Give the backbone structure.
Amino acid sequence: MTRITVACLDMAGTTVRDDGTVLEAFSAALAEQNLPAQEYARAMREVRSTMGQSKIDVFRSVLGGEAAAHEANDAFEAHYGKAVRDGRIEPVPGAEDVFAACRDAGVRVCLATGFSPYTRDAIIGRLGWADLIDLALSPADGGRGRPWPDLPLMALMQLGGAGVGELAVAGDTPADIESGLRAGAALVVGVLTGAGTRAELEQAGAPAILDSIAELPGLLSRAG
């Protein structure tokens, strides 16, 4: 296998621990739409089944109208942004060591997320990660969100990888796995620190599943 030179890593649930604040923000945003109880329950079921995907795309799917989707997405960003400011996020244990190990091994790191660039950058700023990574991408940067392959492929192109044989993708949801597989990444890894269960990640086709992103450097060294 070609040596991995670009690692595209998910944020919430993979490198960032937020103790359920993503679901809380979805719930609060949908509550502001004053949906009937059955519609709200259906919407939350869809939210749970699409974790990891672009947030605005999820709202478009569950609410139907563009105006309502943008209104709900703005509310989501406001609720999650407050959680960030209140210090309710922290690194997944070992995440910063992963960034350092990748850099030492010549692997460039992209953090990819379904959040807006504003929220993404607020998280990175709060955690002090700006100098620890090489790139951060959201669907708004010009691609489609997961489960499409756009974000990992953008990471590969922007960080100078020679081809998908040098690309690793890691995340905690089936959408992350599908995105990596669609991109043709040489290494696609599920982690068990977030929304996806082992069974769900296996069903999505994850070739490798780790207890935590902290185990990724060892896997990368074996893939080289």
Q: What stands out?
A: The mean pLDDT is 92. The beta strands are 6-10, 16-17, 90-91, 108-112, 135-137, 167-171, 187-191, 208-210. Residues 21-85 form one domain. The first helix runs from residue 21 to 31.
